[in-house]
Amino acid sequence: FDPRHYLRTHCHGFPKTGPHRLRFLLESVKDLRETLKKKGSTLVVRKGKPEDVVRDLITQLGSVSTVVFHEEVREIL
Length: 77
Hints:
- This protein is 42% helix and 0% strand.
- It contains 2 helices and no strands.
- It has helices spanning 19-38, 50-61.
- The two termini are 24 Å apart.
- The chain has one domain (3-61): HUPs (Rossmann fold, 3-Layer(aba) Sandwich).
- The model has no long low-confidence stretch (mean pLDDT 84).
- The protein has 77 residues and is mostly helical.
- Keywords: Chromophore.
């Protein structure tokens, strides 16, 4: 979870992620973790800037051959 997604927008001062969306995200992540656990896998969840969290996770895991990500759509001002 990137803390920057929970700040207010620059243009109108509304939260980027409101309480209902946050609840939906948390419930979705919990459901995904439970589904993966039933299949013998797991889900790693971290809070922080992705550029820091991913680097630290790669260092922690030691042997990583591939990293896949997507880029968020930015606001057009």
